[in-house]
Structure formats: structure tokens, C-alpha cells
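no rush on this but wanted to send it before i forget. theres a chain ive been looking at and ive put its sequence and its fold in C-alpha cell form underneath. please have a look and point out which stretches look like helix strand or loop to you. thanks a lot i owe you, the record is right below:
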Amino acid sequence: MLNTILCKRTALPLGLLSLALVLPSCGSSEYKKYADNQAKQVASILRENGCMQCHSATAATPFYGNLPLIGPTVKADMREGTRYLDLTAMLEALDNGQLVSEADLAKVEDAALSGSMPPAKYSHMPMHWGTNLDSDEKAVLLSWAKDVRKKNYSTPTVAEEFANEPVQPLMASIPTDSAKVALGFDLYHDTRLSGDNTISCATCHGLATAGVDRKQYSEGIDGQFGGVNAPTVYNSALNILQFWDGRAADLKEQAAGPPLNPVEMGSHSFDEISAKLAEDKELSKRFLEVYPEGFNQSTITDAIAEFEKTLLTPSRFDKYLMGDKTALTAEEVAGYELFKENKCATCHTGVNLGGQSFEYMGIKKSYFDYRGTGLTDGDNGRYSVTKNEQDRHRFKTPTLRNVMLTPPYMHDGSIATVEDAIRIMHQFQIGKNISDADTKSLVAFLNTLTGEYKGELLQ
């Protein structure tokens, strides 16, 4: 019940008014008992206002969900609600004093700001009387969100007026070891990491092409093609996990994958790779000075990861968030406001404008039916890792930094232009047809996210 996009705007039969005779109000001021614990207050508000009914994969279908006529609507709304946001992990974190997801925080905050919890069609039904957030409850949620963001997610360089924005400016740098970075740069471009000495990391993630190869699927060893679109390497250090399905915990683990993938780089083992690199006397000398243990999977991938941490691309938008009002035009600022109004910032959130959560592709209607090409293993998304059916078709939200330079789009690389990607996301994720004028404004904003690397604007 957190957001109007979660439920269809269809009218429910008036006969449900009779339920008022048997169902009590769900409203409660229980949260006030936790005045000294903001997190527990938020958890209580979410529970007592019935949010878990539509935002938990384990929620039982209410009895009216089995009634004729309204049953299918209720079940569909519950399904959509859980696909947009399952509150289970957030409530567990709140109960145990743990940090909540930045994307979950943004979604709850947006719901409180927009006044859309619960959706209008349910807030006036007898079984939901009293569940609308009152001004005090909204104040608690918004204060909590602001405090959590300031303490855990805001960037030190952000201007005070933008400190509570759902997106934040890039940090100046990530601490690295310069000697490891230099080795990592060389290894990133070294084709000896592949089985036939033809492919390097840079082959599919070129630094001169915004960290991608601008192909639907990258071509690997022996002319083979992968099953998902190659994400950009720029700013990838800011992602919570790596790969579309999140199977790698960090950049080091990610760097170990492609060299041994038979479709990508096709090496048989890191022992094989290490033996080839060890034949290079100059490289070996430099490497041993930094890694006395020599070449192995751990040291090779550590060096590559250390280099990749330097691939941050500050943009005009970062200057704006740091207080430079001249950095953006009026049209670009309007595009950013539209970006927030259309809930884009609830998933493309944080410093990286993405990479912080796994989102279901096709909340409002089936993206895969629209695509019409049948399902592939690459379409399983997060399910490939967790084997949890609720994670099927969930993908790590891609960063929007440099998005104008990284076509084609989506996990399957099936969308050729930014304009089409904007249209698809509005239709399938929030159930809205966006106008050409609004699309133009959003594109203007997205252009401000093109950043610089080593002082040069990416092309």
C-alpha cells in the first residue's frame, strides 16, 4: 500500500461496505510507544497501517481476495505491491537496529511525500479505515528517512540544500594503492587473460566507449556471444553487488568471472593465466614488488579491482548538487524534478543513480510478452543466484551515469535509444504513458550525467 503504482485504479463493488460490520479499523497509534526509537516507530507505522498486506511475499490473501469480482484485483494488487517493494527485509532491519536499503528508504519516503499509502481505492474501504497516514505518521517517516540518509548515504560535498536528495554527488575518489592501480590498468587491457590471447577486460568494457562495447551482446572467445548486455565499468565500485544478477560480492570477485567463462574469455584456470603472465619478465618484476606472492587469482583480480575503483566520472549534475546553480540549465533542472516526480529516483537512487537494489522488470505488465522473443537464462536475473522464485526477473538497477553513451539498454540490450528506454520504463514500471515533452526534459537531465575521466568528457 505504499504507492499508487502498486494498485490498479479500478472501483471495487459497493457491496464491500457491509464488511464494516465485521472488520475493525486498522488505524493505530501504537508507534507512539517507541518515542525514543525512531526505527521502531517506523516499523510500527508500517505494520499497523497494513502495509505488509500488499508488500510481503508471505502475506496471506485476505478473505475478500477470494470473493467473486474483486478477488482477482486484490491478488493482482498484492502481487504488484510485492514486486515494487517487499518490506520484509526493511522491517527486519528496523527491528534489529540495522541499516535499511537506500532504495527501500527512497520508496517509503516517496510514499509519505506523495500521500499515496494506501492507494485511494483501498483507503476508503471499510477494512482499511484508519490506515491513511496522518500528518504525525508522515512526519515520523520523513524525519527518519532524512536522518538515515544524512548519517549513512549523503556525500560530504553535497550542498546543504540538496543534502536530503534521493541522489547524491560523487565522492572525489575512493582510497586506492597507486602501485596496484598501475598493475591493474595493465592487466585490464591484457589479452593474455583469455584462452586464445585475443580478449581483454577492455574488449567488452572499453574506457573510450563509456565502459561498454555498445553491442547488444558482447562477443567472446571463438565468436561466441553472451546472454546479457555488458554493463558499464565506470562507477561500478559504487554498486552494492556486481553483475546484473548480483552474483559477485565486489569488484575483485567480479574480475574472476569473465576470464574463466567459456563464452567470454575462455581460460581454463588462473594457473594457466598466471603462467602466461610470468613469462613477461618486466611485468613479473613490477608485480612481485607489489605482490610478493606472485601471480594467482587473488592477486590478479585484486589489482584489476583496485584500478576499477578509480573509474569515477564526475559530471555537471554533481557540480549542481554541490551548490553550483550555473551547472545546469532551467530545462535540465526541470528534467531532474520530473525524474523525481515520476519515481525514477526510488530505484535509480544514491551516488550512482542505481546499483543499489534488484528491481522486478515489468511491474505493471509483462515486459517479456512485449519483447516477444521467448525467455532466456539471462532473463532469470537475481533468481539465478538465490533460487527464490520471488527474485525471478529481478535485475540490479543499472547506473544512469553516462547513460547517454551506453546504448543499447536494458539487461537484454533490446532497446536502442534512450527515448525508447524512458517510454518502456514508464509503461512497464509505473503504468504511465509519458509525453514527448516530458521525455525531452528527462533526456535533457540525463545528458547532465555524462561525466569526465581524467579531466576529459567521456564520448
